[in-house]
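Q: Here's a chain of 327 amino acids. Please give me its 3D structure as C-alpha cells.
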Amino acid sequence: MDLRSVVVCVALAFAEGAMALLTLATGSYQLSIAQVVSALTGGETGLVHDIVVEWRLPRVAATVVFGAALGVSGAMFQSLMRNPLASPDVIGFSSGSYTGALVVLLVVGGSYTSVAAGALTGGIATAVLVYVFAYRRGVQGFRLIIVGIAVSAMLASLNTWMILKAELEVAMAAAVWGAGSLNGVSWDQVAIGGALIAALLMLAGMLSRPMRQMELGDDTAASQGVRIAVARLGLIVVGVALTATVTAASGPIAFIALAAPQIARRLARTAGITLAPAAFVGALMLGAADFGAQHVAPTPLPVGVITVMIGGGYLGWLLFAEARTRV
C-alpha cells in the first residue's frame, strides 16, 4: 500500500472515531462527549455506563465491522469483474443470501449461526447460478452483471412470495429484518460476526495480490504464475461469505458494497481497487447512514432505507457514466 493510501486510511479512521463518539452521545438520553469517553474508559457506572456500553456501543461496533466487510466484498467483486457496477447487491448475491436466510427464518427458525449458514448457502448457490447462466466460452463482466440483475429480480419476487405465505407475525418480523436494520444487533452477534469477518478479511488480504494481478487480464495474470480458476473461486467464496455474514445479522444493506470501493479508489488515487481504503470507507458510510437513520426522521428508520436512498442516486450516476464511456 502506498503512502497516500496509508494517509487516507488514517484520516478515515479518525473520521470514524469522531462519528462513533457523536453516535454514542446522541439519542433520547443526551450525553456529553466527556461522559462517553469516561464510560468507555471505565470511569462511569450506573445508567451512563449502561447507555454507552450496553445499549449504544454494540450498534456502533456493528457499523464499523459490517461496513468494512461490505466495502471489502464490493472491492473484491469489482476487481474480479473489472467493472464498477459489479457489487454483490447489484449482481444478486445479496438477494441470494437474503433468500437463504429467509428460508431458515420462515421454515426452520433458529439462531444467528443457522441464519448465517442459510445466508452463506443462498449466496454461494446464487453465485453459481449467475456464473453458469453468464458463461459463454468464458465469462465477461458486463454479461454477468446483466444476468445477475435478472436473477436478483427473480429472487426478490421469490422472497416477497415467501413472506406473503408466512404467518402474520413471522412475516412482519421478516419484512422488517429484510429492510436492513441494526436495531436488534447485540454483543453476541457483533462478537460472532466480527470473528467470522476478521477471519474472512485475513483470507481477503491473502488473495489481494492475485486479485490485483487479475485486474490486468487473465492471460497476463496466468503468465505471472496466478492459478486463475483457484483465485477466482477463492475471491467469490470470500466475497459472498462477507456479504452473507452481514446479511445474517442485519438483513440486506444495499449499496455500501457498490459505492465504497469507488469512493476509496478516488480518495487514494490508485490505479486499481485496494481493499484497506474500501474497508475504511465502507465502515464510515455505514456509520453515517445509521446515524441518519436514527436521528434525521421523526421516527428511527432501518439503515437499509437510508443506504437505498443515497445509493439509488449513486447507481443512476454510475450507469450514466458507464453508458457515456461506451458511446
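Q: Can you summarize the key feature?
A: The chain is about 80% helix and 0% strand.
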